[in-house]
Amino acid sequence: MVGVRKGTGHPLLYSGICILALWGLASGNPSAYSAPPVLAFEELLRLAETAAPNGDLGLRLRRLLHTPFVSNEAWNSGARPHRPVRPGSGPVLRAVQWNIAGGRQFDLIRRVFTDPASFQTELAQAEKAGVEAVPAIREQLQLLQGADVVILNEADLGMGRSGYRDVARELAQALKMNYVFGVEFVEVDRLELGLAVPELDGVLKAELANQLEVDPARYKGLHGSAILSRYPIQSARIHRLVACYDWYGTEKKEIAELEKGRRLAAREVFLERIARELRHGNRIALIAEIAVPESPTGFLTVVAAQLEGRSPPKCRRAQMADLLLTLAGDANPVILGGDLNTTGLSAAPTSVWLEINKRLSNPDFWIRQAVFRFAIPTAIAEAVLLPTNYVKNLHDPTVRDIPLFASNPESGLFRALERFRFRDGYAFDFRGEKTLANSNERGIKGFKPTFEFARDYGGLIGTYKLDWFLVKPFIRRPRERNGSRYFAPVYARTLAELNRSIAQQRISDHDPIMVDLQLTPDRVLSTPYRRSE
C-alpha cells in the first residue's frame, strides 16, 4: 500500500511534484482484488440463532465485518478518470452519492450511469405526454456520465431481494471503475433465510412461499456501503461507528415471529416483514484513500457513511463525533458523503403497528406523537408552534435549535461539524448562498429533500433531507468567503427528477446527489469564489 504524506503547509508547495509523479506511482498496478471469505449458508443459519457467536464462526464474522472488499481491476485494465471541465472552475472531480435501497432496481441504476441513450424511447413518450421534468432528466443523465467517484449506501451482496447480485462489484464493472465495499450487516432474519413462512391458507400462502423462497447456494446475506472510483484505491478500511441500536437482540425481542400468528392479509405480512430486520453488525463509515494527482498530498480521502436511523438524534451526534475523531489527523482533502438519517426522530420500532404507521405517513401518527409529546404544561407553547416548526425543520435539519419555541433535534450534529477542525487546521466547507449550499443543493424552503415516503401528502410530511456531502478543502474557517477554492465543492445538485420520473416507479426511495470538486489551484484561475450555480 502506498502511504500518505502527512503534513501541513501551503497546498501549492508540492502539488506540481505530485501531479507529475502520482500517475506514474498509481500506474504501477495497485493490488487488483482482495476480499474476506464470505460465510457459508450453514454458518448463516447458526448466526440466526445466536447473538454472540464464538469460536471459529465468531472469528469469521468479525473478519467479514472489519475487512473491506477492494478492487483496482478497472485501473489495471486501463480505465482513467473523466475529469469533466466546468466553466469558471476548470477540471473537476465529480462525486455522486446514492442510497440505492439494496440495489433492487439494479438494471435501472446501471443504465442511468452507463447508457443514457437507452431511455430515449421513454423520454420521448413522456415528452409527448407533457411531462415537464423531461429536460431536467436529460441533463441529469448527462451529468452522471462525468462521475469519477460514486458513494453507495445500502448495497447488497447475495440477497434475494436484489437478485443475489454483488451489487457494488457488478456496478463497478459496468462503469469500468475500481471499488471498495464494506459490510455493514450480515442479514440473518429467518424470513430472509427461508425458514419462516407465515401460517396462511390457500393462494396467499403459496404466493408468500414463492416470495420468500431462498437459494442457499447464492445467499450471502451481506449489506453495506461502497465507494466506486475511476482513480486507483491506495488503501481502505472499515470504521465501525458507535452502536446506537441492537439489530439482533432488540429486533428479536420486540417483534414477534410471523409464524406464531395468523395474518389476515398479505399487506400486514409484508409490512411487518419491512419492520423487522434481524442482523449482525452495526453502522459503518467506509474510508478510502484514492490517488488523485491534483491533490497536494497526492490523495483524496473519500468517506461513505450511514448514521443510525433507529436511534434518537443524540446518538447520531455521538456516531459523527466518533467518525470525526478517526478522521481528525487526515491531511488530505476529504469528501464525506452518505445517508445521515437526519429525520429529527428515531425510527426504532416499539410495535409493528407504530412502525407501519410511520412508514405509511399516517397523519394520525403525527397527531398522536404531538399529544404524547406535549402532554406536560411546560411544552404547551411548543405544541402551538408544532406545525410551523415541523415544516421549518423538514427540509433544513441545519437550522438553529431554539428550545421550547423552535426545537431542532438535529441542529447539534451540524453545529459540531461546523466547529470541527482537522489537526492541520482545515475545516469543512460551509460557504455558499446559505449553510452548506455549495455542498448540497438548496431549494425554496431549506435544502432539496432526498427521501420521501410513497405518500407524502403534498410534501407536508414524509419528505426529508437525509443524504449529504461534507467537503474539507483548504480553508481554515467554514465560512471563509475569500478562502481557497482548491478542492472546494461547487454546483451541488439533487437528481430528483431522474430518480422519480424516468421509469414507472422510483429507482430508489432516496434521490442521488452530486457535487463537483475544483481540481485547479487558485493561482491559475482568475474567477473569484462565487456562489452555487
Blueprint of the fold:
Layout: H1 15-26, E1 33-34, H2 41-47, H3 55-66, E2 69-71, H4 73-76, E3 85-86, E4 90-102, H5 106-114, H6 120-128, H7 134-145, E5 147-157, H8 167-175, E6 178-187, H9 202-211, E7 222-229, E8 233-240, H10 249-254, H11 266-275, E9 279-281, E10 284-291, E11 299-306, H12 313-327, E12 334-339, H13 352-359, H14 363-373, H15 380-384, H16 386-394, H17 411-419, E13 451-452, E14 463-464, E15 467-472, E16 489-494, H18 496-501, E17 513-518
Parallel strand pairs: 4-5, 11-12
Antiparallel strand pairs: 1-2, 2-6, 3-4, 4-17, 5-7, 6-7, 6-9, 8-10, 10-11, 12-15, 13-14, 16-17
The first-to-last residue Cα distance is 39 Å
Number of β-strand runs = 17
Instruction: Specify Rg, calculated over alpha carbons.
Output: 23 Å
What is the average per-residue confidence, as pLDDT, rounded to a whole number?
81
In percent terms, what proportion of residues is strand?
15-25%
DSSP helix count? Answer: 18
Largest sheet: 10 strands, mixed
Structural class: alpha+beta
- Which ranges are low-confidence, i.e. pLDDT below 50, for 5 or more consecutive residues? 1-27, 255-274, 349-387, 526-533
Considering DSSP H and I runs of 4 or more, what fraction of the residues is helical?
25-40%
Give a short overview.
The chain is α+β, with helices and mostly antiparallel strands and 533 residues long. It has helices at 15-26, 41-47, 55-66, 73-76, 106-114, 120-128, 134-145, 167-175, 202-211, 249-254, 266-275, 313-327, 352-359, 363-373, 380-384, 386-394, 411-419, 496-501; strands at 33-34, 69-71, 85-86, 90-102, 147-157, 178-187, 222-229, 233-240, 279-281, 284-291, 299-306, 334-339, 451-452, 463-464, 467-472, 489-494, 513-518. The longest helix has 15 residues, at 313-327.
